[in-house]
């Protein structure tokens, strides 16, 4: 929801004409580019297909000595005019490189058949440009919660990866992290090596559980969808003493978010989702 508000505000604030004129703006150097709001055009440095439908695209920042300036957690609103459109296409994507890395931002973009922005980003070649503006997402405070549950569906994994990486690479942050990731097939698990490395380096602090709708024969992962049972088996029951003050973050396709968070009617009556049935209160849950 926060992203939708940010996107709407950005659109209302600048207008299509302003965006059009910002297409070729030259970014300033000497300070982190995205530490404050503004639209900037960045050049593609490299592209790499990392599974059957997801591309890693690295963009060069104008100052190679500066990090992006994005805080944990943040996304980038992308603006494009695919095929000469007059109206812009705006979609948020979550950088997956270390936020402290100087000189680059990196996206992992899943291609949706017929998807306007994902198709455009997949078509970009080295040297092409894309326009970005920063969006602050969930503001992370180290050690505020002893345990954080990250529940992702499909490409909704990228904000979870950014947060898990940010927590675990901060020696002053001792938060425990449990990831539950639902995907369609084993081949959709494009960040699994990175999560495996977290598990090895931080035993007892980082745990991942993958749930596959249609697993390969012999897949070691749980078959099906993210259910109450799956979350209980992953150690995410809020009644457990170990989960006192736990925070749950959710990012996935709308049907999954609805199943987890429940629905609210116009008149305020609510149908609890899986998280509510488990005993989570609304203030414990954040959706990207
Ligand atoms: C905060 C935030 C961060 C995000 N970060 C990433 C990221 O790092 N990497 C990434 O790949 N995506 C990310 N997304 C999703 C991204 O913003 C776009 O929604 C997605 O790329 C589809 O845009 P499109 O223009 O290609 O598709 P559209 O033209 O909008 O839609 C084309 C088709 O794809 C379907 N579709 C669109 N979005 C989804 C979806 N999320 N799940 C299932 N079906 C969908 C539509 O139903 C439609 O049929 C993020 C979304 C949010 C809110």
TrEMBL record:
Residues 37-147 form the FAD-binding FR-type domain. Signal peptide: none annotated. FAD binds at residues 91-93, 110, 116, 118, 158. Gene3D superfamilies: Nucleotide-binding domain of ferredoxin-NADP reductase (FNR) module, Translation factors. InterPro entries: CBR-like, Cbr1-like_FAD-bd_dom, FAD-bd_FR_type, FNR_nucleotide-bd, OxRdtase_FAD/NAD-bd, Riboflavin_synthase-like_b-brl. GO terms for molecular function: cytochrome-b5 reductase activity, acting on NAD(P)H. Its cofactor is FAD. GO terms for cellular component: membrane. Keywords: FAD, Flavoprotein, Membrane, NAD, Oxidoreductase. PROSITE patterns: FAD_FR. One of its GO terms (biological process) is ergosterol biosynthetic process. It is found in: Membrane. CDD domains: cyt_b5_reduct_like (cd06183). Belongs to the flavoprotein pyridine nucleotide cytochrome reductase family. This is FAD-binding FR-type domain-containing protein. The lineage of its organism: Eukaryota, Fungi, Dikarya, Ascomycota, Pezizomycotina.
């Amino acid at each position: 929801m926060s992203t939708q508000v940010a996107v709407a505000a950005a659109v209302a604030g600048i207008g299509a004409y302003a965006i059009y004129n910002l297409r070729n703006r030259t970014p300033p150097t000497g300070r982190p580019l995205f530490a404050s709001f503004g639209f900037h055009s960045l050049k593609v440095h490299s592209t790499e297909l990392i599974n059957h439908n997801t591309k890693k695209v690295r963009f060069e920042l104008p100052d190679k000595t500066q990090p992006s300036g994005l805080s944990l957690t943040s996304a980038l609103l992308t603006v494009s005019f695919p095929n000469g459109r007059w109206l812009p296409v705006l979609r948020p994507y979550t950088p997956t490189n270390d936020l402290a890395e100087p000189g680059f931002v990196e996206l992992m973009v899943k291609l949706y058949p017929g998807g306007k922005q994902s198709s455009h980003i997949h078509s970009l070649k080295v040297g092409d440009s894309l326009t970005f503006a920063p969006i602050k997402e969930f503001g992370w405070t180290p050690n505020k919660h002893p345990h954080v549950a990250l529940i992702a569906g499909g490409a909704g994994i990228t904000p979870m990866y950014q947060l898990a990486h940010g927590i675990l690479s901060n020696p002053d942050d001792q938060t425990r992290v449990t990831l539950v990731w639902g995907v369609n097939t084993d081949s959709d698990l494009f960040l699994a090596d990175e999560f495996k490395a977290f598990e090895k380096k931080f035993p007892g602090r980082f745990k991942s559980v993958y749930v596959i709708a249609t697993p390969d024969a012999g897949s070691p992962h749980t078959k099906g969808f993210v259910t109450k049972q799956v979350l209980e088996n992953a150690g995410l029951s809020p009644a457990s003493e170990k989960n006192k003050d736990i925070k749950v973050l959710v990012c996935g396709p709308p049907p999954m978010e609805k199943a987890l968070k429940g629905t609210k009617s116009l008149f305020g009556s609510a149908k609890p989702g899986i998280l509510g049935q488990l005993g989570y209160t609304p203030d414990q849950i954040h959706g990207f």
